[in-house]
Amino acid sequence: MDFLLLFWEYFKIGLFTIGGGYAMIPLVTPMVEKHGWMTELEIVSFIGVAEATPGPFAINLATFIGVKVGGATTLGVFGSILGAFIATFAVVLPSFIIIMVVTKLFDKFKTNKYVQYVLYGIKPIVVGLLLSAVLSILCKVVLPNLKLTAITKDGFSQFNWISLLIVCAFFPLSRVKIKGKRVHPIILIILSAVIGVVVFGAFGVTQ
Q1: Separation of alpha carbons 192 and 175, rounded Å
Q2: Which candidate, 116, 111, 98, places its Cα nearest to that of 18?
Q3: Is this prediction's pTM over 0.85?
Q4: Structure confidence at residue 88 as a pLDDT band (50, 70, 90)
Q5: Residue 146 contacts residue 139 (beta carbons within 8 Å)
Q6: How far is 142 from 135, CA to CA, in rounded Å?
Q7: Structure-model confidence comparison of residues 90 and 175, the more confident one
Q8: Distance CA 97, CA 52 (A)
Q9: Which H or E run includes 29?
Q10: 97 backbone dihedrals φ, ψ, rounded to 5°
């Protein structure tokens, strides 16, 4: 039953996610929390791993969650492998079907005014989903006790100022140009990983 539910949930996410993998985050987070598959903090950690892992972000995240869900069953390692396959297959299946249909009907779609109206309406929604993903992740990292769905005074009791400093340092660093070229994202990923190991691992800093 868990595998059927995993397929159905990720099929819906793949069907309605518009704007790339980051726009998927506002859909994934409440889904995994609703079914008790993982906590919000675990999701943030999985997002970091999926982003640092080679390959498309959305597929990586689906694979990781599939491993987590499948591994919690009685099937053990086989369950993890099966869960990873089901979640990954389910999230790409809607896109595959839609692309096949669009490819066949592209000439009609590209000149259809109603299709253009739909695309114009979707664009601001995509921006909203991306902003929601950024805000939710930033709040969970900087204010780990804060829940955006129910803001209380206790949500501000813990403030991770070191994480905020890292964000404030790396964001402008990603926009810096050296000899006309921006700093490569791979360099930033490696550098941030080293800082994370040193600050949060070696020195045991938590906030």
Answers
A1: 15
A2: 98
A3: no
A4: very high
A5: yes
A6: 10
A7: 90
A8: 28
A9: helix 25-34
A10: -65, -45
